[in-house]
Amino acid sequence: MKEFNLIEHFFKANSGQRKDVIIGIGDDAAVTHIPQGQALVTTTDTLLSGVHFLPDASPHAVAQKAIAVNLSDLAAMGAEPAWISLSLSAPSADEEWLKSFSSGLQELVDYYSIQLIGGDTVQGPLAVTITAQGFVPFEQAITRSGANPGDLVYVTGTIGDAGLGLAIAKNEQAQVSNKSMTEENKAFLLKRLNYPTPRLLTGTKLRRIASACIDLSDGLISDIKHILNMSQCGATINIDKLPLSSALFDSVDKERAVNYALSAGDDYELLFTVSEEQKGNLETTLASANIPVTCIGQLNGSVGKLELYDNGQPYKVDIQGYQHF
Amino acid sequence: MKEFNLIEHFFKANSGQRKDVIIGIGDDAAVTHIPQGQALVTTTDTLLSGVHFLPDASPHAVAQKAIAVNLSDLAAMGAEPAWISLSLSAPSADEEWLKSFSSGLQELVDYYSIQLIGGDTVQGPLAVTITAQGFVPFEQAITRSGANPGDLVYVTGTIGDAGLGLAIAKNEQAQVSNKSMTEENKAFLLKRLNYPTPRLLTGTKLRRIASACIDLSDGLISDIKHILNMSQCGATINIDKLPLSSALFDSVDKERAVNYALSAGDDYELLFTVSEEQKGNLETTLASANIPVTCIGQLNGSVGKLELYDNGQPYKVDIQGYQHF
């Protein structure tokens, strides 16, 4: 493995070919061009073995999830993705592992028409850091701070799936449910955990419609608080409105399903807010793009306060979102 | 440490204030503006405890080195730095450690007028990944691939210091030298190891003058080969011309000093090539900016071949640069 440059060997050929990449992998740094009228959007996320994925997770899934969670952050800003950089820490240069990881990476590079423009490899504990860069038209980025009292709260897709998926991946399904789970449901839930789909199209459609947006990585309760704090609002959330997949709902009792939806995180759906005036515009825009969204509550003026209701009755939970430390 | 966002708490206040940062730390991603006529330059590097710095290294130095090695990559492209993102993996949220790390980071943010625009924290083995972004005017980036046979080979500053610095940091100076080392020399060599200075001004001065450039991170022999391979050249290097500091030269015998200079890496000086026609232009430009450079050899047409001479005699060494795996 002497003189072995992993990035060069495993990733250069698969790195994509965008016209806006002037210098890609193989120099001291990458050189790229931003289109006129667009702002640069940048995000960085690290996935660490044993923390963000199970040590026996497939390298193919690890690569895809590491990219997806970063693209999800771009989606939450309304940005479209362009380039990624990779820092890979791995205990050894295991060729099988790297091939699988590289093929996972290449699939998403192709699918999203992005390009791997550089990176670094170190010998160490298994960890993947991706920096994703993209664009958004000037002044159209969707922040966490633009929401107002009265705005409606929406989420895309279904939530809570990845939480149960993690229990299944850890073989703990008997501990969380006495219902039997179908193989099909298990496969769906595991896919939601291991292969999250960043809501990139939704993000671009929400430009100039949503007042605020965040992606659900740490859990709804944890993540909505960022919007409440930064927008100086409170919120009521109707837990009877939470969009739960039939795979989740059929596999565990209702309270547990709701708990996953509120606190498990890792779903990478978007949570966003829309003024009453934009509601019609939103629904037309998303319906024409076939994007499933659900209104789950409304903002109010009680700064930082989050109230949960179940069919109009106050709902008590004692759960926290994901803690980084 | 509940609900404790390290990046927000320790780094937001110290992150700098650039007018081209529209959205900085605290949202899903950062939004920044690139000046017209400039290309974006991006690089990522990870420093891992026990590999790239000693486990007992001061957090202040770790922060500064992690930034410096990335800015050095921008310097090698002729770029000026603008923004950095940080992914910090740490075993615990140790307040003293984080304060020291954060103060080291802030000093460089202020010194280089850059801004920390985002990042991620994870609980894990101590590792610091920085992504640095900067600009270079369109078509003025300096690559590794533009050199031609006949071009002169230069390095900035002095090389080999960090190699001996590392031996001192590991308390191995008695094993590498039977000379006594002065405290002043030791301090200088340790500073070269722990606080490398990216050659940013030099990089910008070399635009349209240098034909190729790389920063010396893995050692001269290892790094020049990237230029030779990518530019399809060979080189002769005169080891009697290598710029050695008096601190290095006074502390070890000549052969070891040369070995450090050729192979130890971590000096973060620039190695660059200049055509004979540009030689005068180069020397005037750098002299007026008071930048020390030394011509150490010349390129030729023997593709990929590196020959070393000592006062005209072939010089044999059996050394390799830093191996990432």
Automatic annotation (TrEMBL), chains A, B:
It comes from the Bacteria. Pathway: Cofactor biosynthesis; thiamine diphosphate biosynthesis; thiamine diphosphate from thiamine phosphate: step 1/1. Mg(2+) 2 binds at D45, D73. ATP binds at G119, D120, R144, S217. Its EC number is 2.7.4.16. Residues 149-301 form the PurM-like C-terminal domain. Pfam families: AIRS, AIRS_C. Substrate binds at H52, D266, Y322. Mg(2+) 1 binds at T44, D45, D120. It catalyses: thiamine phosphate + ATP = thiamine diphosphate + ADP. Mg(2+) 4 binds at D28, T43, D73. GO terms for molecular function: thiamine-phosphate kinase activity. Residues 26-136 form the PurM-like N-terminal domain. Mg(2+) 3 binds at D28, D73, D215. The keyword Transferase applies. Keywords: ATP-binding, Kinase, Magnesium, Metal-binding, Nucleotide-binding, Thiamine biosynthesis, Transferase. It is an enzyme of class 2 (transferase). Mg(2+) 5 binds at D218. Reaction mechanism of ThiL seems to utilize a direct, inline transfer of the gamma-phosphate of ATP to TMP rather than a phosphorylated enzyme intermediate. HAMAP family: TMP_kinase. NCBIfam families: thiL. Belongs to the thiamine-monophosphate kinase family. Catalyzes the ATP-dependent phosphorylation of thiamine-monophosphate (TMP) to form thiamine-pyrophosphate (TPP), the active form of vitamin B1. This is Thiamine-monophosphate kinase. It comes from Paraglaciecola aquimarina. The lineage of its organism: Bacteria, Pseudomonadati, Pseudomonadota, Gammaproteobacteria, Alteromonadales. The gene is thiL.
